[in-house]
Predict the 3D structure of the following.
Amino acid sequence: MADTQQVDAKAERKAARLARQISTFSKAHGGAEAQVAYIGERGARIVLVGEDGGWGDLVAPSMDIARQAVEKSGITVHEDFDGEFAAKVTTGTYEWKRMAGLQLGGSQGR
């Protein structure tokens, strides 16, 4: 019984920490929306997109913790990273150069 309580308390602390990080991102970007995706044994990826087009991500140790964190932060969560949601992301010069480099055979660690 004690082990279960320790795991639950640890998960709750992790969700609260992630929720604070999400809230900080949201405040810095004029609001935010998210999408949670399962990434295998590593857990879940929380993709954040700010109202200003800025974006970032966080990794949670499980889907449950990721969902709890997003819920605690109070932001909108999307089921999919669909076209309408993805269109809110602003990409800069760095991203375009990196994408072009990969397509043209550059920047692949050669």
